[in-house]
């Protein structure tokens, strides 16, 4: 949950005069139908980068920014468009993501860095995104879209490996409860462009002193994320996150991908390759993992927000997820859901707010009270679809917090009434000392001793019920690996 509401990402560009014509594709040397000159491409990239900057903070660790930029620039110099001015940025987001804008703006989240295990894998992510830029994929897609449809969006310019909910509608809480998908999922590039980016990325890896096979490894990392998320989604009773269609098969079984990556072996320099694993682990040691403190932190089933100065507790066995626009908790069986959302400068009392928000009839029951020193209104009613729900509106520090819970059947709702009330009542302001004590989780590197297992590490981990699998994913050993004695591994502290 972010401190204040920001506009959604998809911003319609004002009408742009575009030149129709053909341009030489820098990669293939052949002519592509594009509506955009290189100068236009740069402008679009700059505009889109400004939008990204509004939505995401840069990760505030200059040494790591420097390191990622150095690796990126090394690859870019070996690319088909070495003359472009490339920008490589680590975004302060726990999501696993990497994306490119036209003209050479490339972003990786600290979320994706956490799951990589060598500099070669980082280079593979960056090389793939550079491939999208050099092959002008976004420009080609943009031109196709513009030719078909005058209303182009900046969203159409983004080439992501994995792009969940970038268009998330903020401050529209209750969306999960009402079953809206809400966010506009940006579509990927399709198989042929992805494969081309993999091929180009593999070439840039080889020319820069890395083994092109790192490309296959990284796609495996993303595929494992997807497989793991299918498991977790089942536990949480939600749809799994969808990656691009490119991961339909595991990279190890994808012969076309194997082929294009192996072709890059011809570009390996005489000096050979080095994955620079130790250097990558050194650079990412101490990096924040999961939610940043200014986004609120989840520990077990408790959510705390340092800046906004409050906490609340969900039932201990519920799964809690902190999303940009809301905090969502799911019951162990996935048959009940609670969501906390935030509204700035509410008018009137909590009861007035609830009445307006839920369009309540005069017959609906609203209970006004003071709880933990804060004004609260509690409502029990039904949604427009006829589903029963219970919601609390809490005023704190001139903001309204809405915590609403519902179940998938009236019988289940009756079972959960009490726990929804308990969660509403647990909302309270933090003391100054409590605020100060909130720290983010960090990636730490340790040397595995003999006999150390992920089961043992999971027992002392703050990562919750799925700690063992998270630790395997972080170390590239999902689903069955174990630490190798004497080798460095990552844990979360
Ligand atoms: Zn891609």
From TrEMBL:
Keyword Protease: yes
Alphabetical list of Pfam families matching this protein: Peptidase_M48
Cofactor(s) for this UniProt protein: Zn(2+)
Gene Ontology MF: a single term: peptidase activity
Gene3D superfamilies for the chain: Metalloproteases ('zincins'), catalytic domain
GO process terms (BP): proteolysis
Residues of the Peptidase M48 domain: 63-262
UniProt keyword list: Hydrolase, Metal-binding, Metalloprotease, Protease, Zinc
Keyword Endoplasmic reticulum appears in the UniProt entry: no
PANTHER family, alphabetized: M48 FAMILY METALLOPEPTIDASE, METALLOENDOPEPTIDASE OMA1
Designated name of the protein: Zn-dependent protease
Native organism: Nitrosospira multiformis
């Amino acid at each position: 949950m972010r401190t204040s509401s920001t506009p959604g990402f998809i911003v319609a560009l004002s009408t742009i005069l575009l030149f129709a014509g053909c341009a030489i594709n820098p990669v293939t040397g052949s002519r592509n139908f594009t509506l955009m000159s290189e100068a236009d491409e740069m402008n679009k990239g700059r505009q889109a980068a400004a939008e990204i900057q509004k939505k995401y903070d840069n990760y505030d660790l200059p040494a790591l920014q420097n390191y990622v930029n150095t690796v990126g620039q090394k690859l870019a110099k070996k690319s088909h468009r070495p003359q472009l001015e490339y920008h490589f940025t680590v975004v302060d987001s726990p999501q696993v993501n990497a994306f490119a804008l036209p003209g050479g703006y490339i972003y990786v989240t600290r979320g994706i860095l956490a799951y990589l295990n060598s500099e070669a894998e980082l280079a593979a992510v960056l090389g793939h995104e550079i491939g999208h830029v050099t092959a002008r994929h976004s420009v080609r897609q943009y031109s196709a879209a513009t030719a078909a449809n005058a209303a182009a969006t900046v969203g159409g310019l983004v080439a992501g490996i994995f792009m969940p909910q970038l268009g998330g509608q903020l401050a529209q809480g209750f969306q999960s409860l009402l079953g809206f998908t809400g966010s506009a999922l940006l579509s990927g590039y399709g198989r042929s462009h992805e494969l081309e980016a993999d091929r180009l990325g593999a070439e840039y890896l080889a020319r820069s002193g890395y083994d092109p096979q790192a490309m296959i490894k990284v796609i495996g990392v993303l595929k494992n994320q997807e497989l793991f998320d299918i498991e977790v989604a089942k536990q949480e009773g939600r749809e799994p996150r969808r990656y691009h269609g490119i991961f339909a098969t595991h990279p190890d079984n994808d012969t076309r991908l194997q082929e294009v990556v192996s072709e890059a072996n011809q570009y390996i320099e005489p000096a050979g390759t080095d994955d620079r694993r130790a250097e990558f682990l050194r650079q990412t040691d101490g990096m924040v993992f999961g939610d940043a403190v200014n986004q609120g932190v989840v520990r077990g089933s408790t959510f705390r927000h340092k800046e906004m100065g409050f906490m609340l507790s969900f039932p201990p066995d519920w799964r809690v997820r902190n999303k940009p626009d809301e905090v969502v908790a799911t019951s162990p069986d996935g048959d009940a859901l609670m969501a906390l959302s935030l509204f700035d400068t509410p008018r009137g009392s909590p009861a007035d707010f609830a009445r307006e928000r839920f369009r309540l009839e005069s017959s609906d029951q609203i209970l006004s009270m003071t709880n933990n020193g804060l004004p609260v209104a509690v409502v029990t009613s039904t949604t427009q679809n006829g589903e029963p729900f219970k919601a609390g509106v809490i005023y704190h520090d001139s903001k309204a917090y809405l915590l609403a819970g519902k179940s998938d059947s009236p019988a289940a709702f009756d079972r959960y009434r009490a726990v929804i009330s308990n969660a509403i009542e647990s909302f309270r302001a933090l003391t100054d000392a409590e605020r100060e004590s909130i720290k983010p989780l960090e990636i730490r590197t340790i040397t595995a001793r003999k006999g150390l297992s992920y089961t043992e590490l999971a027992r002392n981990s703050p990562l919750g019920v799925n700690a063992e699998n998270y630790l395997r994913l972080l170390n590239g050993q999902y689903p069955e690996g174990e630490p190798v004695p004497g080798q460095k591994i990552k844990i979360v502290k």
